Amino acid sequence: MRSAFSARPANQYYTLTALLAARGAQTSTSRVIAGSVFTLGLITLSTIGSSATLQWPGSRILLAGVAVLCFLSTFIWLRHRWPTRTESGVLVGIAAVAIPIGTIAPVDPMYGLLGTAAFALIIGYTALFHGPRLLAAILTIAVATLVYLAVRMAPVDLPLTLAGVALMLLLYVFAAFSCRLVVWLTGTDDGADAVEPLTGLLNRDAFYLQTSTLLASRNRDDDRYLVIGVVNIDSFAAMVAVAGNRGGNRARIAAGQALRETVRRDAILGHVGEAEFLVADCFTTPDSSPLIERIRGAIAATPSGMTASIGVVSTPLRPLVEHPPHEILDEIVALATTAMYEARRAGGNQARYVVHPNLSINDDETDGYDTPML
């Protein structure tokens, strides 16, 4: 088992941001971060206007620069687009420079010691969204700043210095450990490569892998059915032409969330194309229309008012046992995709079903048949 501190940073960042988007929390999270950064800028401005004596003639200019950087960072977080990993790393770097300036500038080191509490915010953010290397760098800068202030404070009041430094170190350790623990417990580091960044659903390879596991884990003596659905947003190209890429992204996120809230807990969901999603589940009967109808209705009920065409294949599990799962899934997904296109040609916002398909692995010559959604 890998440690909570060993996640791959790039995948970790995009996986977490995708999960936030998929749960509709990306906007609120960015606003909280923006509010925190803006507040730090206001605190810096208040230091400039306070009675605190500053060390250098140009200290107020440096602090004003720190405040400006905070306000500019606020606007980055208030954009409609979540920052890229590189942009996020640059913002962390800016904070790593700005906070020491703001804490070292006052002549009275007690002011600076209070200001070092801001490191806990950036440490927690770095631990959650970035890798251990950047986290170690930020912790090093934070501890070095504390040591500098402690050396200045110790001759005046050693007990207070030790108490203040210990409290700040406790904040840093708690922020780093708790956020890294969240990453580890949610499996973000282990499953980072499996997630499609925009919707937080599985990519094609991960969908195939988990569906293969689903096939292997089911009791085929119950003659259960594997159901694969291909869901495609209707008129997606026209939607992007009208609403732009941002509107298209919102539609895909909404469709992914609708699927996640509609399917059963053990169902497997994937986002494998611009507007195409995959659903896999096992049923005791070949009739999956109740679930598919709920999916169709959930997508139609999204705020964007979009609809979806759905192709569904239901096939018994028992004949699949002795064959390579990826080849089976390729064939079933292809049949479901063909059924989905038939639903689109019929006007969209409906489903087409293929039950007991004549797969290449079958020994018999039973023909599949298509049942339209009424």
Q: Give the distance, in angstroms, between the N- and C-terminal Cα atoms.
A: 50 Å
Q: Give the C-alpha Rg.
A: 27 Å
Helical/strand content category: alpha+beta
The coarse overall form would be elongated
Helix percent band: 55-70%
Plain-language structure description:
Helix content is 59%, strand content 10%. The chain is an alpha+beta fold and 374 residues long. It folds into 2 domains: 9-192, no CATH class; 197-372, Alpha-Beta Plaits (2-Layer Sandwich), CATH 3.30.70.270. Strand 4, helix 12 (325-345) and strand 5 (351-355) form a beta-alpha-beta unit. Helix 7 (132-153) runs antiparallel to helix 8 (158-185).
Keywords for this structure?
alpha+beta; disordered C terminus; 2 domains; Alpha-Beta Plaits; 10% strand; 6-stranded mixed sheet; disordered N terminus
